[in-house]
Amino acid sequence: MNVITAEIVLNEEGLNTIRYHAKNAGNAQLIVVVPSGAAVNMGTFYVMDARGDGTIDGGWIQENDQWKYKKGDGSFLSSAWLMDKGKRYYFGEDGVMAVNQWLKGWFCWYYAGPDGAMMTNTVTSDGYELDDTGAYYDPTMSD
């Protein structure tokens, strides 16, 4: 399991954002220490080609009009995010990439667009504004 270093920074709107950096490709558990001192498990991510040298075997597979991502060990991503070519994708428990749906984050929501990529810096068709991290913050939401 990779180690991911993370920092929490205050953005222009006064909201905390998380920047993370992975040293190697593969599965990674992201645990962030928030300002209160509590450790928050942000879930499992799969970092693709983190070194930029193309060493990961596997890749995108289409099955019955749905997309999955096969890891180097032959298994499929599930309940995890994938960063690929600067875009983030989420794969559900069944390993299928989320498309045109809201995804619950930590005190926020994300939206997977028609191509499955998490949308950023836009307003959704139902009128919700997504910031540059892709998050929509709902003040009534608790985690």
N to C succession of SSEs: EEEEEEEEEEEE
Structure classification: mainly beta
CATH H-level homologous superfamily name of the largest domain: Cholin Binding
In the CATH hierarchy, the architecture of the largest domain is Ribbon
* Termini Cα gap: 26 Å
CATH topology tier name of the largest domain: left handed beta-beta-3-solenoid
Estimate the global geometry from the Cα principal axes: elongated
The share of residues in extended strands comes to: over 45%
Radius of gyration, taken over Cα atoms and rounded to an integer in Å = 15 Å
CATH classification, class level of the largest domain? Mainly Beta
Strand order of the largest sheet: 2-1-3-4-7-8
Q: List unreliable stretches of 5+ residues.
A: 1-5, 48-56
Number of domains: 2
Query: What's the total count of β strands?
Result: 12
What is the arithmetic mean of pLDDT? 73
Key structural traits:
143 residues, mainly beta, left handed beta-beta-3-solenoid, 2 domains, six-stranded mixed beta sheet, two-stranded antiparallel ribbon, 45% strand, disordered N terminus, Cell_wall/Cho-bd_repeat
